[in-house]
Write a structure and sequence with these properties.
Layout: E1 20-21, E2 35-42, E3 47-49, E4 54-62, E5 69-77, E6 80-81, E7 86-89, E8 98-105, E9 110-121, E10 126-139, E11 160-162, E12 168-170, E13 178-184, H1 189-205, E14 210-216, H2 221-230, E15 237-238, H3 247-251, E16 259-263, E17 269-272, H4 277-287
Parallel strand pairs: 3-10, 13-14, 14-15
Antiparallel strand pairs: 1-6, 2-4, 4-8, 5-6, 5-7, 5-9, 9-10, 11-12, 13-16, 16-17
């Protein structure tokens, strides 16, 4: 159920955002000087939508004490909170009222029954406030598969670029090796938590023919360079500063990160979205 919806403008959840059931009744009321609310959601609920139709949500927020807040919006799917969300910076001045607009969409059938909002302190990653906004929308299912879904079991399309360190990357020229294509960003908590697993697999299997090619959805080049240096990430990184509009994110229909493709020695996509111990096991299997 977690992976049924694919959302526009989303990044996967921070560590304190969880999946699973959560009741609006258990959400405490906000203090009088804190603002976190859905101003409007269009189309009006209950909405009946075709695959790919968007719900546009306007959110107002403010906090009198936190200097750098972030607001996350998560759709609730039949009582389940999905591990996917949108986020936005706070107003320029602490306490000033800010407004953001976000859109949700899916190619899969199902019913969304609420929008959950979280406000966090971006510096300390402390939860400041949360709110449920009831909203019902039902999508019809699409019979079409996304470009990324249709790649499993097929040759990976060509991908060439000049990496952040200046080296030229041609994935097609890597045939004969097992290649991990990694879509990530430094601001993505789950992406950062996966880095140790990638480093371990890279160090263990690089000599046997394992390579990593990273596609960064960062917009801040200096933040990306700092992270690469601090964590000694030596594999090539694609960066164009466009965030979710990254050329390869658009080509492969990437709407959530971390995401990945694991290619065998013939350049065929064998796995997508592996995490944890499954990364090392799959790499070892394909290197045999």
């Amino acid at each position: 159920m977690k992976y049924f919806l694919t959302f526009l403008f989303l990044g996967l959840a921070a560590p304190w955002l969880t999946t699973g059931e959560e009741s609006p009744a258990r959400t405490p009321p906000l203090a009088s000087d804190i603002v976190l609310e859905v101003i409007s959601a269009t189309p009006a609920a209950p909405a009946s939508l075709q695959p790919g139709d968007k719900i546009t949500v306007s959110i107002r927020y403010a906090h009198p004490e936190a200097e750098n807040v972030r607001v996350w919006a998560q759709p609730s799917w039949q009582g389940q909170i999905l591990n996917a969300s949108t986020y936005s910076p706070s107003p320029e001045l602490p306490g000033d009222q800010g407004e953001i607009t976000r859109s949700f969409s899916t190619q899969h059938g199902g019913t969304m029954d609420a929008i959950r909002l979280h406000m966090i302190d971006a510096s300390t990653r402390t939860l400041l406030a949360k709110v449920f906004h009831p909203y019902e929308a039902t999508w019809e299912a699409s019979s079409e598969r996304s470009p990324a879904e249709s790649l499993l079991g097929k040759p990976f399309p060509g991908m060439t670029f000049t990496a952040l360190d200046g080296q030229f990357v041609d994935v097609a020229a890597m045939k004969g090796k097992v290649v991990w294509i990694d879509f990530w960003a430094t601001w993505c908590g789950p992406c950062r938590r996966k880095i140790p697993d990638l480093i371990a697999a890279y160090e263990q299997y690089r000599g046997a023919g394992f390579e990593i090619v990273a596609i960064s959805l960062d917009k801040d080049e200096q933040a990306l360079r700092r992270y690469i240096e601090e964590h000694n990430l030596t594999w090539p990184q694609h960066f164009d500063g466009k965030g979710w509009e990254n050329v390869f994110a658009r080509q492969f229909d990437i709407h959530g990160i971390p995401d990945s493709f694991l290619l065998d020695r013939q350049g065929v996509v064998r796995y997508r979205g592996l995490r944890g111990d499954a990364i090392e096991r799959a790499v070892a299997e394909l290197l045999k």
